[in-house]
Amino acid sequence: MRGPIVNLSDYNLNWEKEFEYEKKTIVDVIDDKVLGIEHIGSTSIKGLEAKPIIDIILGVQDLDEVSNFVIPLSEIEYEYVHKPEFKDRRFFRKGLWGQGTCHLHICEINSREWIEKLLFRDYLRLHPDVAKEYASLKKELASKYKYDRSIYTKKKEPFIKTIIEIAMKEQ
Predict the structure, then answer these.
(1) Pair 141, 5: CB distance under 8 Å
(2) How far apart are CA 79 and CA 102, in angstroms?
(3) How confident is the model at residue 102 (pLDDT cuts 50, 70, 90)?
(4) Which residues pair with 38 in a beta bridge?
(5) CB-based contact 57:72 (threshold 8 Å)
(6) How far apart are the first and last CA of the chain?
(7) Model pTM greater than 0.70?
(8) Rounded distance, CA 151 to CA 124, Å?
(9) Cα 20 to Cα 26: distance, rounded to the nearest angstrom
């Protein structure tokens, strides 16, 4: 079976509004457990082409709490997706498989997962030249791996890791 297609879209000013809407609905259902919630991923970088999926990271005190969120989040259309490869986060999707509109990543606040996702986002926001370099890489990979989103994602990892290392040194 063929996986979801890699389809990059031009930056959309509505992505920030979509994030704000999702943030409010998520906080409304699990309010007291939310220690932080941020817009991450390419849709959070002004001007960057992206798969039109809003990536959200939510910080909690303890990852074991997340099992209590499955039902409340399902009421706002987020489906828990068990991903054993994600050791330090839990993953929820909104929308049909391969056609999701939002991805919710839940991790412990100030964990490595939390810090690295925000470091990468913030570095691209502060360095438009690096964001352009990332955009070029994404376009090249999207063209090459249009029908294999997992390989597309895997091939971006070395660039992302390098930027996170640079960002950590500059802190």
Answers:
(1) no
(2) 10
(3) very high
(4) 57
(5) no
(6) 44
(7) yes
(8) 22
(9) 10
Give the Cβ contact number of residue 125 at 10 Å: 15
Percent of the chain with pLDDT over 70: 97
Single-letter amino acid code for the residue at 21: Y
Dihedral (Cα; 114, 117, 122, 127), 10-degree rounding: 150
162 token code pair: 């390098």
Residues whose CB falls within 8 Å of the CB of residue 45, separated by 6 or more in sequence, listed in order:
11, 121, 124, 125, 131
Token couple for 69? 């969120």
Cβ–Cβ < 8 Å for 150, 3: yes
Q: Quick one: tokens of 37?
A: 């919630």
> What is the mean pLDDT of the segment spanning 91-105?
88
Report the amino acid identity of residue 42.
Answer: S
Chain centroid to CA 114 = 11
